[in-house]
Amino acid sequence: MELELKKLNLQKEEKRPLVLAGPCSAESLEQVLTTAHKLKDSGINIFRAGVWKPRTKPGSFEGHGDKALPWLKQVKEETGMLIATEVATPEHVDAALKAGVDIFWIGARTTANPFAVQAIANSLRGIDIPVLVKNPINPDLELWIGALERLNGEGIKRLGVIHRGFSSYDHKIYRYEPMWQIPIELKRRIKDLPIICDPSHMGGKRELIAPISQQAMDLGMDGLIIESHCNPDNAWSDSSQQITPETLDYILSTLVIRNEPQSTENISLLRHQIDDIDNQIIEELAKRMRICREIGVYKKEHDMTIVHNDRYSEIIDKRGEQGSKLGVDQDCIKNIFGLIHQESVRQQYEIINKNEKDNKENKDKQE
Ligand code: PEP
Ligand code: MN
């Protein structure tokens, strides 16, 4: 389904980055006002704060709910900032609209649930409000796009997305893996969709906010949503990833914003070279598969199993090491060879099953 989008229209000029900042949760009137005034003084115009907090486990702070909405309203009245909060149900939508919330976002856990997204979309029918859809917690681009289609289907046109990283079993550096290829593919498929990066949830640590923000800008993302709190160490939620408005101001001042598509001759020459190399990679891959199929025939004739774990480990380790010597990340090479191996196995299965099928058909004919 083709999306019909309108600009978010959240700031006068279309300058990059669009910045939303504020605490993970609205904790008290004093906390939101102090934080908001400091942010406003450093030039931030959009205030974020969670009112309803979906937490992984019960028992942690789940937000003040409706009680916090007047606090956000007061931020808006005192500072003139736009206010943004997360909504997860039609009741949240209703209450937040009444309180004058200007921007909604849909949280990662909610985006993963089509029933919840549809219910929110239905409750927004006929209302012109910007909605930012966070990526689902699992790396599923179709589910993310599906959420956008549900909202767009009910007439919401001021849509954007927030890339906040994806849950993965073995996270190492990041709290949520960036998997940049997913938002990049999203941008390729839906050209006019603004993408905002959330380095706070992605990194989970204060020191990762600057490098992730820079990376997002280098990849051409449109904005940043960053958790900022007047007293981060005592925050009631996500304390280790929140920064003071002063630190935020410093980080933003160090960001290098490069301009969008450069189509100089140099780049197009280099792109030609890349195209040639990609072409070679695919041809070589096809050759490799041909040989794998021959091995498949051999395995069939000699009654061997398809997967040989020692051989698989040898390939992954050897190529990973080789890659890292040549300046390509070892894990990246391992992932690529994991996929190549998966396709080789699939092709060998096909050969073996085809032979089985042929034998069975011949036998049936003889009988
Ligand atoms: C948030 O932005 O405070 C939040 C809960 O984020 P996410 O849905 O990305 O976990
Ligand atoms: Mn948070």
Mean pLDDT across residues: 93
What is the class of the largest domain in the CATH system?
Alpha Beta
Strand line-up in the sheet with most strands: 1-2-3-4-5-6-7-8
- Beta-strand fraction estimate: 5-15%
Q: What would CATH call the architecture of the largest domain?
A: Alpha-Beta Barrel
How many structural domains are formed by the residues? 2
Q: For the terminal residues, how far apart are their CA atoms?
A: 52 Å
Which kinds of small molecule does this entry bind, naming each only once?
A: phosphoenolpyruvate, manganese (II) ion
Q: Return residue spans where pLDDT drops below 50 for at least 5 consecutive residues.
A: none
Order of helices and strands: EHEHEHEHHEHEHEHHEHHHH
CATH superfamily of the largest domain: Aldolase class I
Main β sheet profile? 8 strands, parallel, barrel
Number of strands: 8
The total count of helices amounts to 13
What structural class should be given to the helix and strand makeup?
alpha/beta
Helix content: 40-55%
Q: In CATH terms, what is the fold-level topology of the largest domain?
A: TIM Barrel
What is the gyration radius calculated from CA atoms?
A: 25 Å
Morphology: elongated
Key phrases:
367 residues; binds phosphoenolpyruvate; alpha/beta; binds manganese (II) ion; eight-stranded parallel barrel; Chorismate Mutase Domain, subunit A; single chain; TIM Barrel; 2 domains; 8 strands
